[in-house]
Design goal:
The protein has eight helices and 14 strands. By secondary structure, the chain is an alpha/beta fold.
Length: 263
């Protein structure tokens, strides 16, 4: 079950269900996500992480359960509805255009215009302000072509693009995948700054070292169920791995039903 907190969650999911044909992918999932906190969503391949995130983002409609945002029950029918609430997703492929500069990537599909022409000055100013607000120092210029950027710099641009739109919840899908040690450290530092600035962050990662370093709490999915959501400081690396691979760790997680053996 999700942790209890004195603060009200920004996002609260209760009893979320989702099936594709005869395959039940999410089975009564509960999740709490808090402003100013990094919630790591972990689980093995096939646990339901991607389906859960796509449901939050409005790509898939949930079949059942309650979706509560800022204390209000909402219906998310498409990605625009999620964006309107302040939910932004940075997917693993980043969806950046190599032939455009940083500014045009940050405003891709949401360009600002002055009459019939692009308002280049305003877009550049807002891009700079957003990057400065995140204490990004790794970009030489907001007019650099994305094709010239490193993997860590690309991830930074994608995250800054999500923050640009007055977001309240930023979902990051494997942001450190395929990055080197130094670039991973830069991205994790940026993730921490997002939460410290008051945003709610959902971090999807297979890297338990990254998770234990940056997460405030950890939500472990196991075969479509939420095995446990716990404070990161209350569990060890090994316990998280057991939650991911077996759905339980000692008294924590999904317990065997009466009459079933315990491993």
């Amino acid at each position: 079950m999700p942790q209890e907190s004195k603060a009200n969650p920004l996002l609260s999911l209760r009893g979320i269900r989702k099936s594709f044909g005869a395959v039940e992918v999410l089975r009564g999932v509960d999740l709490n996500v808090y402003s100013g906190k990094v919630t790591a969503l972990v689980g093995d391949n096939g646990a339901g992480k991607s389906t859960l995130i796509k449901g939050i983002a409005g790509i898939y409609p949930f079949d059942g359960g309650d979706y509560v945002f800022e204390g209000e029950s909402v219906q998310i029918s498409d990605p625009r509805a999620a964006n309107d609430l302040g939910i932004e997703v940075v997917y693993q492929d980043l969806a950046l255009c190599d032939n455009l500069d940083v500014v045009h990537n940050m405003f891709l599909g949401r360009e600002e215009k002055r009459g019939l022409i692009l308002n280049e000055d305003d877009m550049e100013r807002r891009a700079r302000e957003t990057l400065d607000g995140l204490s990004v120092r790794t970009l030489k210029s907001v007019r650099q072509q994305v094709s010239s950027l490193s993997g860590g710099q690309r991830q930074t641009v994608a995250i800054a693009r999500a923050v640009l739109w007055n977001s309240k919840l930023v979902i990051l899908d494997e942001p450190t995948a395929a990055l080197g040690v130094a670039q991973t450290a830069q991205v994790l530092s940026l993730v921490r700054r997002l939460a410290d600035a008051g945003l709610a962050v959902i971090l999807i990662s297979h890297n338990m070292v990254d998770v234990m370093e940056v997460a405030d709490n950890i939500a472990a999915l196991y075969l479509g169920q939420m095995a446990a959501q716990v404070e990161a400081s209350d569990v060890s690396h090994g316990e998280v791995v057991e939650l991911i691979t077996a759905g339980r760790s000692g008294e924590l997680g999904i317990q065997p039903k009466n009459g079933e053996g315990a491993a």
